[in-house]
User: What shape does this take?
Amino acid sequence: MKTNDHLEPTVFVIFGGAGDLTWRKLVPALFDLSQDRSLPAEFAVLAVDRVALSDQKLRQRLRDGVNQFSRFGQVRDAAWNQFAQHLSYQQGDFKKPRTYAALGAQCAKLEKVWGAKAHRIFYMATPPSMFGEIPKYLGQAGLARDRPWARIVVEKPIGYDLASALALNAVLAANFEEAQIFRIDHYLGKETVQNILAFRFANPLFEPIWNRRYIDYVTITVAEEVGVEHRGGYYDHAGALRDMVQNHLMQLLCLVAMEPMVSFQADEIRNKKVDVLHAARPIDRDAVAQCAVRGQYGAGASSGKKVPGYREEEGVAPDSQTETFVALKLFLDNWRWQDVPFYLRTGKRLPRQVSEISIQFRAVPHRSFPVGASLGWHPSRLVLSIQPVEGIVLGFQAKYPGPKMQLRPVNMRFSYHESFDAPSPDAYETLLWDVMKNDATLFMRADQVEAAWRWLTPVLEVWAEAPPSDFPNYAAGTWGPEEAQGLLACGHSWPSPTELVDQPKKKGKNS
Ligand code: BG6
Assistant: This one.
């Protein structure tokens, strides 16, 4: 295990330490950090949960998760044993003060052994019903008080609607200062998502045309090929609007549309992002049908195999009205973006997994080429591809070789894979590292979360009041309901993602 003397002693407490998130994401990410970027020399992970579990059983279980999900593959004994000695288990009820007293004692004991004060990170990897409880108990036990040293990490969903998000933020704020609260949106930890800022603000080329004068419209697609998998119970109470749009898609929107930041300070970037949400034109309740489309998948095919409809999935009500697809149209009322439509769509059981942002530039003001030369003319398009292919593609017109002037669309590509001899860390690796360094840049602030809920409230309300009559309205393995086309203005289209996804990987030392 690599250790880093510049990092101060840290105790990483995971509530829900015997749960799926710890096994699948958190401990594999911590293990990868231990092999790569390094952890503090004085470091302990304290997994807290209700079930009875020995340290040894916990470590066995977590090793299995690391074997499956670490980017280093199967873990070798020596590496695991070194890492595992930092993991221990504490059984406890999250709603009993004695759990927190025991935690405090354990942290104090570790500090005594290390001879130094330690940072205490409290990670809530629990069901959302606990998010409003744990901070209170931490506060009562005096574990939140030590301002610069204590931090709390909250997973999404941050609330179920605006009222519950406000209530949760109020509980957090009663016990922790905003600077101590790290609200996770794992999309912000993805390399390609962070690269949006680098691309826009580290290059002078695009920023001058990144506005209503040159950009016709923007689409943001986060498509999943998978269905609800084993999460039907949770998902049936959430739906795509709460599960994906309120957080991941709104965050992508902010990064694409924000004004340049003055510095790389966490609050400076978060101020610029929240400005975007404040600029989002409020949706009139009467206009919800013109701005938002919902869908639910029925039986169909995925990767050539028959798959059941959403209502047949485990944990889902047979008459469920929950949406598994959302498409939205929105406008930002500010100088940069006035009247430029932003189209957002996300869904499960779509034909393929693809997340990408497409910037469609306007056509040239005058076509001076002969009519025949420009058949099939496409205005330039820039695609920021987030996953599964990580890269950027700029589509533009070029002259086709030959004696005649004929134009054809071509692509210029940047691929992470081809350009950099370094693997992309998992988003959780980046985010956990930032929590340890106390850097909140990639985390959601309370006002951002609330602004996103506020903007979506009319859609949530209108949809709740008028349940859909046509569900399921798209077959698994298709691009969602037909109505999603109807959101688009004349001449606009949802881009086909094939060009990036089908790009063969380059052979060579980086492949
Ligand atoms: C999660 C949602 O936040 O993001 C899931 O709860 C979704 O429903 C997942 O599948 C998608 O994340 P990624 O990183 O696989 O695109």
Observations:
- The two ends are 26 Å apart (CA to CA).
- The CA atoms of residues 50 and 92 lie 5 Å apart.
- Residues 504-511 have pLDDT under 50 and may be disordered.
